[in-house]
Amino acid sequence: MPLGVRLFLVYFLFVGLSGWFVLSTVMDEIRPGVRQSTEETLVDTANLLAELLRDDVRAGTLDQGRLPEVLRAYGQRRPGADIWGVRKTQVNHRIYVTDANGMVLLDSSGAAVGQDYSRWNDVYLTLLGQYGARSTRETPEDPDSSVMYVAAPIRDGERIIGVVSVAKPNASLQPYIERSQARLAWLGAGLIGLGLLVGGLLSWWLSHSLRRLRDYAQAVSEGRRAELPGMSGGELRQLAAAVERMRTQLEGKAYVERYVHTLTHELKSPLAAIRGAAELLEGEMPAEQRQRFVANIGNEGARLQQLIERLLNLARVEQRQGLEERVPVPVHELAGELLQAQAARIESAGLEVENRIAPGLCALGERFLLSQALSNLLDNALDFTPPGGLLRLDAERLGDWLELRVFNQGDAIPEFALPRLTERFYSLPRPATGRKSTGLGLNFVQEVAGLHGGELRVANRAGGVEACLRLPAVAD
């Protein structure tokens, strides 16, 4: 299972369980919280009524006053109030008054006058001087039919002469409870969803960053050119820098070892030729033969110098992970400059040169490297073009790419050699001399093409050989 998925699952379990626990706890507290607030209001109402009724209860004139009429009018009121989205269309309080013995003197519902309520906790406890309250179901089987009763004593000095009770059905509170629970459920679900979204994005970002580092390390281990991915996190940036330092140190060590081995191998032949010629020159020989051995030493020395220079150029290109610049490079003008530099060689061989590259075509890249790459292709083409042969350069825009082609008239490349042409130190004998080159030219061109994101292809064509260098084109 990917690391990002595992991190998200852990985060999901933590946030989900924590959110569910907090949400369920708060939801469970809504109902008692609303009822506690309502009970506190009933306490205030009962004590207010106790003070208003004290004189009538003490004088025994409670049924003769206006209170029964007021209570009946109160029960018929239609408030029409909109309380936080809940419509209130009727009053819900029931009020009854008992004497010091618990007998009902007045009932706003008119149903309990004359009954003995001394056994109910609200009246019983209040008459004992305690806080009297009770909750009773009107329908025993229905828990939602419960009614809260809160009582307050009616006092004559220190003596309790009666009790006033105020009742409110819990069913009238249910719409507010349900509304609060619904709003809280939506809000809680939204917060949990937002938390999970943030967790998912964080897991994706971390997994994506680690995957980019993994791909970079894998590319380095396979010897492919790759750019160090940019990281925004502090620890991830430090990890990327550490991987880059490790790559540089390990690659540098392996690179030096490989080049020492290859350079040692390639230097053996010219050094052996120079040493043999020098030993022969120590003895007596005709002047013409001596001159030939001296020329051989000069040729082998030039070969050594060319080998070292090309190795250095190739080493610089292979060690680079990217281009130093990306500028438009006009290929027609670049090809013209290189052909002009080879004018003496072209003229001495009597070659026919055609520069068919359309003016205005531009490749996007580093001018110096492209110049070096095209120069290597021209050198190869000149080496294999017979005297009086044709050398042709052309280019074509294909979407976002520019294909630069160098064709030279000459013998076809053997099929066995085609896949190996870009191998380091692999070379075919030159037709004019029968000698091989350093075998680094096409390898250098391939490295330059890779740096630009392009490619090099060499193939046989009718009447000769064509090298095609594919490069990014300048956007229109």
UniProtKB/TrEMBL annotation:
Residues 204-255 form the HAMP domain. Pfam families: HAMP, HATPase_c, HisKA. Keywords: Kinase, Membrane, Phosphoprotein, Transferase, Transmembrane, Transmembrane helix, Two-component regulatory system. It is found in: Membrane. It comes from the Bacteria. The keyword Transmembrane helix applies. PANTHER family: HISTIDINE KINASE, SENSOR HISTIDINE KINASE YKOH. This is histidine kinase. The gene is creC.
